[in-house]
Structure formats: C-alpha cells, structure tokens
Design brief:
mainly alpha, elongated
C-alpha cells in the first residue's frame, strides 16, 4: 500500500471488543462445497471454516 501511495489503515487498539462473529458472503456453489466438506469431516460448517481459516 505504501508503494502505490495508498494510506495505511489505522491500527486497531486493544480496547476494541470483538464478538467473535462476522458475516462472510460467498457464492452458493462455494457455500455448498464447504458444507459438503464439513459434513464429510463430521463437523459443523462453522467449525470446519474456523479450522480452515486458522490453517490458512
């Protein structure tokens, strides 16, 4: 961002509270694919996505 002159976003501070929830909109085909992978792993879509994000 600095290279192309785009200002960097302001850093978050430790006083901000996070709920642990956020909405992620994806195409229906990706939603289906993730749901099927979660089912094959024997876990919920939420836990499958959380695990996948942690390993990214």
């Amino acid at each position: 961002m600095e290279t192309d002159g785009t200002p960097l976003p302001e850093a978050t501070n430790d006083r901000r509270k996070y709920s642990g929830k956020f909405v992620l909109r994806v195409e229906p085909a990706l939603h289906r694919r993730l749901a099927l992978k979660a089912l094959a792993e024997g876990e919920s879509l939420n836990s499958y996505c959380t695990k996948t994000l942690l390993n990214a």
